[in-house]
Automatic annotation (TrEMBL), chain A:
One Pfam family cited in the UniProt record for this chain: MksE
Record-given protein name: Uncharacterized protein
Domain of life the protein comes from: Bacteria
Species of origin: Chryseosolibacter histidini
Organism placement in taxonomy: Bacteria, Pseudomonadati, Bacteroidota, Cytophagia, Cytophagales
Automatic annotation (TrEMBL), chain B:
Protein name: ATP-binding protein
Coiled-coil stretches: 307-334, 592-619, 692-868
GO MF term set: ATP binding
UniProt keyword annotations, A-Z: ATP-binding, Coiled coil, Nucleotide-binding
Superkingdom of this protein's organism: Bacteria
Species lineage: Bacteria, Pseudomonadati, Bacteroidota, Cytophagia, Cytophagales
Length: 182, 1225
């Protein structure tokens, strides 16, 4: 079986740490990866590059087994931020389920009317205007591939959000000894 | 050249910085002037004559507009005077807000415009014309109209006289070329420019393909296609189904919720009512119970009191018996029997004592008279005997009396005892009988109860309720079955109707396609014929006539058919010009129609035929769409009805499932209640039977008791009789014994008296015989008297004891039996009373238990209702769910609910939780579903999360309608139509465009041949200028070509109504390929940023110039050829050649008696000789050069007219002619 002709495009997206989600503008690429034996073929092909092609629910990404500690630390740092961002979005009336479309202005309005959200958004962004704050946060998620910006004001939740959810669900909060035995 | 038409003169009146200047330019003209003197202004004005376009004059956007710069005053005029042989006319251009033209049939006369050195206003000028009877045209208001007039293309014949040339539809190339030469004379000559000129010369603007429009249509198409593709994606289809399932589930949950809410409302009201009713009942029952308890306690007290008295009596009897026992023992200890016996002997002892004392006194009284003595003794003895007999009789009588008394007592006692026994028996028998009667009554009751139990219908209410439910269900089942069958039939008939519509449409479609195909084939054939004609026309008789015989249409065209005209083997030769005869015969052909057609007519016919084909295609696509629309609208109605029916069927199925569950439950409940009823019946029957048996046994026992009592009575009577007999016998025996004893005593005494009498007789006889006295006897008497006295004393001493004994015997000892009987009687009475009370207690306990059970049952019900109400108040009323359902709960009428309030609340909460869980899933599914479509997708799958839950339900309803009405078919049809139309439009436009290819090549070859003449034979400056065309490199064009090829390969296979059907693999591949092609095209268009595809994009043009030793090779643009002068020269040659070719192409061959100007500024660097050659080169082609020079040099001598630009004292530019008519023409 031949490699799909989009393989270089797929590689260039994934190797930058991005996701390919089925419901995004790169949905066609996902369809190609998902098509018949392509996933296994590509996985085997990319294995030689040091990347492992991983598949989640309707999304794919690259993983690396050996990564320098510095990068890992950065990733962890980023994740702690994403967790806060997810917490923010999950506190909204409309939860961040796959396919949900958020309008920045609408989120900003909700933040104005909801003190809890307001506090969260203030903790997440230092921008002055509420709209800019929201745009920054949504933009960060879009940058990471969990959201996709459809137009200036609209962001859509990608299938890759499942990855974030899966990672968050793996986190176990352990109580320290002191708290256990006060 | 006498009739040559040329722009003869240009006059400025108040134009720019010129007050007045008149410049004759009817030949090669040179303007000399330093910079900023107005050379370009004048040249631009000349250009404006040809182009009549204020925008294409090379005026920078930062500069004033043409109108503002040139026409600063209302009396500003540019006048173009045109020479037509000896005649002159002029065009006046003036401004009244915008620019206007007027053609004036007269040469320019200054006085008409200027009076007293003052330019007149246009009205005044017209007045002047009128005064001088100068004809002038109407005001020409548009540049286009002006150009049409000037280039002889205006349909209005009255303007024909003002035409500079007789141009065809492509005359636009001439002003374009003149403008381009003026604008780009100093820059690079690009192949693009030449291509553009070629294109303009052979086509109109309509042949260009507007990529913006196509791109927009493509974008619309691909977006729509993508929407439909997304719609058909497997996961979306599945999710769509899921959403519809979710929606239906949610609807069902809502229905259930409403039903539960109503039920709860009913249950609450019922509970409120029951709470009061049951509360009252409980209160009544409790009061009744308390009364029953009190009554029983009182009765218990009475019973205790009654028993207490009897017990006291028994106690008294017991103490009496105890005292009797004690006293009897005391008496026995004191030998009361001996004492009594001794006391019984007292009278005898007293008699004995009296007798002995008398005897003693007699014996001691003296021995006097022995006879007397003995007589006395005999008398005494007789007296004693009499006394003894008297005593004995008395004793006998006493004994007899005692016997009779005892006998009477015995009889009395016996009688009493017997009576008591009988009484006791009668009482007991009565009691037992009463008990027996009671038991028999109870047995009868039990039998009745048994019958009643046998006939009783247990849990009748519940069972009849369930029966009612089951009957309702059965009734509903039948109704539903018939409704279902009707609906299924309806669905079937709708399906058939749908199939029928589809089939009919398919047949219609096939017929239409066939007809369309045939028509198209006919038209294609027609095109083929025209193409064949056009391909051979140059080498046929037709071509010969075109080239050599002007107006042949009017003569030969009327007598030759097309077969002759397009015959290549005729070898025509012109023998004699101007002879209008057919083989020597003159014919009047004025009434004969022309057979042949011009090339344009053939082309037009071909285009028209193509348009017909396009129209057929269009009609086909429209037919398809219309058919799809019609089919969809019909099927939508059917689909809607079917969906409604299916919904109803689903609802009925759901109801059936629910009813089946209910039926099962009711059936189970029904059997359970029946089982419970039978169980209870059995239990009660067992109880009744047991009770019956018990009663039977008890009755038998009572009967036995009665019998036993009878026999006991008989026995007791017998025993009493026996006792009486025994006692009587004993009494008789004692009496007999006493009587015997008395008799014996009497006999003994009588014997003793006889003895004594005998002895006395003997003694008397002895005394008398002896007369002596014996003292032993006295002594013996004395001792006898003493012992009797002692015995009597003892008797006297124990007399009180005996009396006491006798009293006690009379009061106690003799009544012991009586006491015992009384005690037994009393004890029996207590027992009987206790038994009686025990029965009462049993009845009380039973009643109390029954009441307590009733109270418990009622309390349990009350508790249930109260708990339910409390539960509702504490756990439901405060919830948002209640507020939501309040309108249902509060409106519901009171009704009993099996599930109870708590159960209903729990069910409602569970339903609500389930609803929310399902709704969350539903929302996620919709978000994911809608998220897969573009935000502004044409299927309108959009959801606004801010609009709340109803928005999601609206979406689901919309989706359901969409599916039911199969609305996707409309989209598919529309997309298929736009797909077909796009391909058709592209193909037809491409065809129209590529048709020009032959003419392009022809034109290029013409140009090349013209270039070959520009080799400056004299100087041999340019060895050659070559031109060649290559295939286009335009990527968009290539894609367009591929689409066209595809269209030709698949004339009828694409553009089917459904682009998405997977049934026909070959068709599906073709569809896929066509969509890919369109998608590729769209991508390329957006990547390449072209706005349109024009004729010039069909080919690439390459130049090759050899100048001296310089050979440029095949190049795309001519940048620098040799030195600046050479370069300019070469470019000028190319431009002039181009202009020449364009003029040839754009004007009628028979009317080429005109000259145009070619304006090339700044030609100072061209050497005089080359300039001379250039002028000559231009002149050969009827082109006059207008050049600009910064300084005076010898160059100007080569021109017909040379002008110098100066400024006067007022700063006005003055154009001064330096030389008129060249010395060296």
């Amino acid at each position: 079986m031949n490699l799909p002709k989009q393989t270089p495009e797929i590689f260039s997206i994934l190797s930058r740490g991005n996701f390919i989600s089925s419901n995004g503008s790169r949905g066609k690429l996902y369809d190609i990866i998902d098509h018949e034996g392509n996933y296994e073929l590509l996985k085997e092909y990319f294995r030689h590059t040091g990347y492992t092609l991983e598949r989640g629910h309707n999304y794919v990404y690259f993983s690396q087994s050996d990564e320098p500690n510095l990068i890992l630390e950065k990733k962890l740092e980023a994740f702690s931020y994403y967790i806060d961002v997810m917490d923010f979005f999950s506190s909204m009336d409309t939860k961040p389920t796959v396919g949900t479309r958020y309008r920045v202005t609408q989120i900003a309005e909700e933040c104005f009317s909801n003190e809890r959200l307001k506090q969260k958004v203030f903790a997440l962004s230092r921008k002055e205007k509420m709209v800019d704050k929201v745009a920054e946060i949504a933009g960060d998620l879009a940058q990471a591939g969990f959201f996709e910006q459809e137009d200036e004001d609209t962001f859509k939740v990608m299938d890759a959000i499942h990855y974030l959810e899966a990672v968050i669900s793996l986190i176990t909060i352990e109580q320290d000894g002191e708290q256990k035995n006060p | 050249m006498e009739n040559r038409r040329i722009l003869n003169r240009i006059i400025f009146i108040n134009i720019a910085n010129t007050d007045y200047s008149s410049v004759e330019i009817a030949g090669n003209t040179c303007f000399v002037g330093t910079n900023n003197m107005g050379k370009t202004t004048l040249q631009r004005a000349i250009l404006f004559f040809y182009s009549a376009n204020t925008r294409g004059l090379g005026i920078a956007s930062s500069q004033k507009t043409f109108e503002d710069y040139y026409f600063q005053y209302p009396n500003s005029y540019i006048i173009y005077e045109i020479a037509a042989g000896d005649e002159r006319f002029h065009v006046m251009v003036y401004r009244n807000n915008k620019l206007f033209y007027r053609f004036v049939e007269n040469e320019f006369v200054q006085e008409h415009y200027i009076t007293d050195k003052e330019a007149l206003l246009p009205k005044a000028v017209l007045t002047k014309f009128n005064e001088h009877r100068v004809n002038y045209s109407d005001q020409i208001e548009t540049f286009e109209r002006y150009r049409n007039i000037i280039y002889g293309a205006d349909p209005d014949k009255k303007y024909k006289k003002f035409a500079l040339m007789k141009g065809n539809a492509n005359y636009h190339n001439i002003p374009l070329a003149i403008t381009s030469i003026f604008l780009s004379s100093e820059s690079v000559i690009r192949a693009e420019f030449v291509k553009e000129c070629i294109a303009n010369s052979i086509s109109s603007k309509h042949t260009t393909i507007e990529l913006k429009t196509i791109e927009r249509q493509l974008r619309q198409f691909t977006e729509r296609y993508h929407d439909i593709e997304t719609f058909f994606r497997k996961e979306n289809t599945q999710r769509g189904d899921l959403i519809r399932d979710n929606f239906s589930h949610i609807q069902q949950l809502k229905v259930k919720q409403r039903a539960l809410a109503k039920e709860l409302g009913g249950a609450l009201k019922y509970a409120e009512l029951q709470k009061d009713t049951i509360g009252t009942q409980v209160h009544e029952r409790k009061e009744h119970l308390a009364k029953v308890e009190n009554d029983f306690r009182e009765r218990e007290l009475v019973h205790r009191d009654e028993n207490k008295e009897v017990i006291q009596e028994i106690g008294a009897l017991k103490s009496k018996l105890k005292e009797a026992d004690k006293k009897q023992k005391e008496y026995e200890d004191r030998n009361i029997a001996d004492l009594l016996r001794e006391a019984a002997e007292k009278p005898q002892l007293l008699l004995e004592l009296q007798a002995r004392e008398h005897e003693y006194a007699t014996l001691t009284a003296g021995f006097s008279d022995i006879e007397q003595q003995f007589k006395t003794l005999f008398d005494a003895l007789e007296n004693e005997k009499k006394e003894f007999e008297h005593v004995l009789n008395k004793t006998g009588l006493q004994l007899d009396k005692k016997f009779n008394d005892d006998k009477n007592d015995l009889i009395e006692s016996h009688r009493k005892e017997e009576t008591a026994l009988k009484e006791r028996h009668a009482a007991e028998a009565d009691r037992v009988r009463e008990l027996k009667t009671q038991k028999e009554l109870e047995r009868k009751d039990a039998s009745y109860r048994e019958k009643e139990i046998q006939q009783r219908r247990y849990f009748d209410h519940e069972i009849s309720l369930l029966k009612g439910h089951l009957e309702d269900l059965a009734k509903r089942k039948i109704e539903r079955a018939s409704a279902l069958s009707v609906k299924h039939n309806n669905v079937d008939s709708l399906r058939k109707e749908g199939e029928h519509i589809r089939e009919r449409n398919r047949i219609t479609s096939e017929q239409y396609i066939e007809k369309n195909k045939q028509e198209a084939a006919v038209l294609e054939e027609k095109i083929k014929v025209i193409d064949e004609k056009l391909s051979v026309h140059q080498h046929a008789f037709f071509g010969y006539l075109q080239d050599n015989y002007p107006d042949w249409y009017e003569t030969i065209g009327k007598v030759c058919n097309e077969e002759i005209l397009f015959n290549k083997d005729l070898n025509p030769k012109l023998l004699k010009k101007g002879v209008d005869a057919l083989y020597g015969i003159q014919l009047d052909l004025s009434q004969v129609k022309v057979y042949s057609k011009t090339l344009e007519e053939y082309e037009q016919e071909r285009s028209a035929t193509r348009e017909q084909i396009a129209a057929l295609n269009q009609a086909f696509l429209e037919f398809r769409e219309a058919q799809a629309h019609e089919e969809q609208s019909k099927l939508a109605g059917i689909g809607k009805k079917t969906a409604q029916l299916k919904n109803e069927i689903a609802q009925l199925d759901y109801e059936a499932a629910q009813d089946a569950t209910k039926e099962k439950q009711y059936d189970l409940d029904f059997h359970e209640w029946k089982r419970k009823g039978e169980e209870q019946r059995e239990q009660e029957l067992v109880e009744v039977y047991t009770h019956h048996d018990t009663l039977k046994k008890e009755i038998a026992t009572l009967q036995q008791q009665l019998e036993e009592l009878g026999s006991a009575l008989a026995e007791n009577i017998k025993r009493v009789q026996q006792d009486y007999n025994d006692r009587y016998v004993k009494l008789k025996r004692t009496f007999d014994k006493e009587a015997e004893k008395i008799k014996e005593q009497r006999d003994e005494k009588l014997e003793e008296f006889e003895d004594r009498k005998g002895k006395l007789q003997k003694e008397k006889s002895a005394v008398l015989k002896k007369k002596g006295i014996d003292d032993t006897r006295i002594k013996k008497l004395k001792a006898n008297i003493d012992s009797i006295r002692k015995a009597l004393e003892n008797l006297e001493k124990n007399g009180e004891l005996i009396n006491d004994y006798r009293k006690d015997k009379r009061e106690l000892f003799d009544r012991i039996d009586e006491f015992k009987r009384d005690r037994e009687k009393l004890e029996e009475r207590i027992k009987q009373s206790d038994r009686h009370f025990e029965q009462e207690r049993e009845a009380y306990e039973k009643r109390r238990k029954q009441l307590q059970e009733e109270v418990r049952d009622l309390s349990e019900s009350l508790r249930k209702y109260t708990e339910g109400l409390n539960h509702f108040d504490n756990h439901f009323r405060d919830r948002a769910l209640y507020d939501r359902l309040r309108y249902l709960i509060e409106e519901a009428p009171a009704e009993y609910a099996d599930a109870g309030i708590v159960g209903l609340c729990s069910q409602l909460l569970a339903n609500d939780t389930e609803f929310h869980t399902q709704f969350d899933k539903f929302r996620s599914n919709i978000a994911e579903y809608a998220g897969r479509f573009r935000p502004d997708n044409h299927l309108n799958f959009k959801v606004n999360p801010a609009a709340g839950d109803l928005e999601y339900e609206r979406f689901a309803a919309y989706l359901e309608d969409f599916h039911n009405e199969n609305k996707i078919q409309i989209s598919i049809a529309e997309v298929a139509k736009s797909h077909g139309m796009l391909i058709d439009a592209i193909a037809s436009k491409m065809k129209a465009l590529t048709e020009h290819k032959g003419r392009i090549n022809k034109m290029i070859s013409k140009m090349e041949s013209d270039f070959s003449k520009a080799s400056f034979e004299g100087s041999r400056l340019i060895e050659y200028i070559k031109l060649k065309s290559e295939d286009s490199e335009n990527k968009v064009l290539r894609k367009l070509q591929r689409i066209t090829e595809f269209r030709e390969q698949n004339p009828f296979l694409y553009g089917e109504t459904n682009l998405f059907s997977q049934g026909n693999k070959a068709k599906s591949e073709i569809d896929k390929r066509s969509v890919e092609l369109l998608s590729d095209l769209q991508k390329t268009i957006s990547e390449e940023h072209y706005e349109e595809i024009r004729v010039q994009d069909l080919f690439e043009l390459r130049f090759r110039i050899k100048e001296g030793r310089n050979d440029t090779g095949w190049i795309e643009k001519i940048d620098k050829v040799g030195s600046t002068g050479t370069d300019m020269l070469v470019k000028a040659v190319i431009y002039i050649t181009l202009l020449n070719v364009f003029i040839k192409e754009s004007t009628e061959k028979t009317a080429r008696n005109f000259s145009v100007h070619c304006i090339i500024d700044e030609v100072g660097q061209i050497s005089a000789s080359y300039l001379k050659e250039l002028i000559a080169f231009a002149e050969e082609r009827n082109i006059c050069l207008i050049n600009g020079l910064p300084n005076e040099s010898k160059l100007e001598t080569h021109y017909n007219y040379t002008y110098k630009f100066r400024k006067d004292a007022n700063g006005y530019v003055k154009v001064v002619p330096l030389l008129t008519m060249s010395i060296e023409p």
